[in-house]
Amino acid sequence: MLRVEFYVVSLVTLLLVLGCRSASHSDSYQKALIAESDGNYEEALMWIKTAIKLDPHAAEPYYLKGIIEYDMGNIKESIDDYDIAIATDPTIAPIWNERAISKAALGDFLGAKADLDTAIDLGMRDSIVYYNRAFMLCKLKDYAASLKDYEKAIEIDPSIYYYYTQMAEAEYLLGDKQGAIEDYMAGINRNPFDYEDYYNVATIMVECGQMALAMRNLDKAIELSPDYYRAYSGRAFIKNDLGDYSGAIQDADMAISLDPSYPYSYRHRAVAELALNDLQGALADLNHAIELKDDYAEAFNTRGVVYMSQGEIAEAIADFTKAIELKPLLREAFENRASAKERIGDLSGAEEDNRRANEIGDND
Description:
Blueprint: H1 12-15, H2 27-37, H3 41-54, H4 59-71, H5 75-88, H6 93-105, H7 109-121, H8 127-139, H9 143-156, H10 161-173, H11 177-190, H12 195-207, H13 211-224, H14 229-241, H15 245-258, H16 263-275, H17 279-292, H18 297-309, H19 313-326, H20 331-343, H21 347-363
Helix pairs in contact: 2-3, 2-4, 3-4, 4-5, 4-6, 5-6, 6-7, 7-8, 8-9, 8-10, 9-10, 10-11, 11-12, 12-13, 12-14, 13-14, 14-15, 14-16, 15-16, 16-17, 16-18, 17-18, 18-19, 18-20, 19-20, 20-21
């Protein structure tokens, strides 16, 4: 539901304050640094290779070459360059940070975390290094530890908005939904122009039953990005909850027109169609949602309700059972299957499903 992004910036500016030695003062090195900063990576690569030829035993040119290779999408090559730089001088903390970024790009989050530990041990205290380690810890599912690093990054630099929005992800995964909402809003207050942040906080607000607040945030997401299909789809969900079925259909129609491959929009439209007794329309939309996402438990559950409304009890029970297989804690599927079983006289089966639904409800 929530996006997790690894926000990183190349630390080229740090090269200017490292007291760069030997080859770092060469004309070719400085030209490579300027070209990289301007985004002229091919030119930068040409100049830095020249600098390395002039002094193949200095760490800084390999460090800069690693940054250039990374920005060109050559991740493995960047790691090779950082390896040489570290072997030449293992005391330059930012190199460990940059190698961590490259390792993360290849999915080696454990190796990246180890490199960031070293960068911090060497005295790197920039907020970004704590943010980066927090990200790695999140990827390693150590959410409690990641929170501490996010908090440290914010303590060092409280102005960077995405520190708050990414910390919200860790809080959400730890079950602290209200804390996640508060940190999302703290990030939004620092940067009110990221439409996805409004969408992300709205999804958590929906889970907390804060429908009016969620609607306002989705409205803002659409204001900032009128073609953002997820926001229309989310708004359709809320309008269904509020009983505005025609409004839900209108928003679902818009979401589908913007991205016909997003399965949730079809289910949201089907819920509204079902409420308006358009059973054939609902069935067609649910079939399409399931075609797009064959593990969509809620779509199977809703299609079961449509089958029940049409008197097709065996098909309904099959769909409720499939929904439960896919999502064993989907209480509504147990409740609906209980009703279907009552319709065919399976009272003991209905009683068992109601009992399991109540157990799930007690544990919510």
